Amino acid sequence: MYKILILPGDGIGPEVMGEVRRVIHWFTEKRGFSCVLEDDLVGGVSYDKHGVPVTDAAMAKALASDAVLFGAVGGPQWAKVSFDKRPEAALLRLRKDLELFANLRPALCFKPLVKASSLKPELVEGLDIMIVRELTGGVYFGEPRGIETLPDGTRRGVNTQVYATEEIRRVARVAFDLAGKRRGKVTSAEKSNVMESGLLWREEVQWVHDHEYPSIALDHMLADNCAMQLVRAPKQFDVIVTDNLFGDMLSDEAAMLTGSLGMLPSASLGAADKSGRAKAMYEPIHGSAPDIAGKGVANPIASILSFAMALRYSFNRGADADLLEQAVEKVLTDGIRTGDIMEPGATKVGTAGMGDAILQALTALSGK
Ligand code: IPM
Ligand code: MG
User: Fold this and answer.
1) Into how many domains does the chain fold?
2) In what order do the strands lie in the sheet with 185-190?
3) 310, 353, 330, 282: which is closest to 33 by C-alpha?
């Protein structure tokens, strides 16, 4: 019996997570997936109620769960809140305290949505990249950090980019393992031409390759070149492994290539314990979209596909994950669209309508 914690968060988070609950229910009813669902507040709604973006009680639930399903956090009403209490701080605390060092961000171009990309269809058709972003180190967490006032009254802002051997090796292993199940190629991105931490990154990734994964192809690429190659010829990539900050940027870029920012899921994984279980959090790549929140028009697909990743990586139910992904693909092929991916001739639905369509497709595909 798995324990799942749902943290819907702010903006469109609660709406899209509502559809995820229906999907989970379907798998419970029809495929014998057994789980206990818990809920809590995160982000701005938690700040408003408790004065912190995530409470210790919610953290304790997260630590005790097999998977956290996260919606989205943030909104303009919390823009002036101090850094440590911002909605985003909850996300950073969850990542850090659960030790979710490997962030998997697939950039997949759904065939029916090829035309939604800003790139030429032939460049993105069939695109399937997996970005593995280091998530608990680097400049996001490095010390010293802060803003200090200098004697002359001007100020100085400091952040520190820092990586140690094991932080690099463990995320590199995740990338090589994934590549082994995909097309067998890893591209590691850093700035070894200007940063010592980048040089160490490159050397440690090479070390893991040479000692543990000699049969996987490994390329090193400077991160700026990688950004350029992603729009020039994105299909050259299979798995990209990179640090926290470059991963933040390259994954947004890669997601946009697919034309489906509102469609892409992500998984953040920790190390497996003795029983083979790893802590994990799943969330859509898109944010809280305050402009459309509460209107019932948000696209729930990224959150639903995040649950598919949970089925695959946390619950060892690859066939169910495939089924759910096929159901999404079928709905898109059938021309059902939320507003963000609408095109002429398609049928426009809202959040719940998309949920209905996916449930119907699940039933049709599974014969249940
Ligand atoms: C992401 C987001 C976060 C990040 C923000 C919301 C803190 O951009 O998950 O990519 O920078 O990691
Ligand atoms: Mg980001």
Assistant:
1) 2
2) 35-39, 2-9, 67-72, 278-284, 265-272, 102-108, 128-134, 239-242, 185-190, 217-222
3) 310
Q: To test ligand 1's pocket by mutation, which of 10, 91, 133 has the most ligand atoms within 8 angstroms of CB?
A: 91
User: Could you confirm whether 66 is annotated as catalytic?
Assistant: no
**pLDDT tens figures, 50-61:** 999 999 999 999
Positions in the chain whose pLDDT score sits under 50? none
Dihedral pair phi/psi, residue 214, rounded to 5° = -60, -20
Q: Is residue 286 part of a domain?
A: no
The predicted pLDDT at position 115 comes to 85
User: 347 has which bridge partners?
Assistant: 336
Mean of per-residue pLDDT scores for the chain: 96
Residue 252 known to be catalytic: yes
Q: What is the pLDDT of residue 261?
A: 76
pLDDT at 367: 85
DSSP state of 295: T
Give the ligand 1 atom nearest the CA of 91.
Answer: 7
Find out whether the beta carbon of 128 lies less than 6 Å from any atom of ligand 1. no
Please indicate whether residue 84 is annotated as part of the active site. no
What is the reported pLDDT for 141?
A: 96
What does the pLDDT read at residue 350? 97
Active-site annotation holder among 248, 322, 334, 340? 248
Q: Is the C-alpha dihedral spanning 333, 263, 167, 229 positive or negative?
A: positive
Which CATH number belongs to the domain containing residue 344 in this structure?
Answer: 3.40.718.10
Helix ranges (DSSP H) in the chain = 13-31, 44-50, 56-64, 87-97, 121-124, 165-181, 196-212, 223-232, 244-257, 301-313, 318-333, 351-366
Q: Which of 40, 47, 191, 213 is catalytic?
A: 191
277 is a domain residue: no
Q: For position 134, what pLDDT does the model report?
A: 98
Residue 142: domain span: 105-269
Q: Are residues 295 and 310 in the same domain?
A: yes
Show the tokens assigned to 174.
Answer: 């995740």
Ligand 1 pocket test, candidate residues 73, 81, 88, most atoms within 8 A of CB: 88
Is residue 30 part of the annotated active site? The answer reads no
Q: Which residues pair with 330 in a beta bridge?
A: none
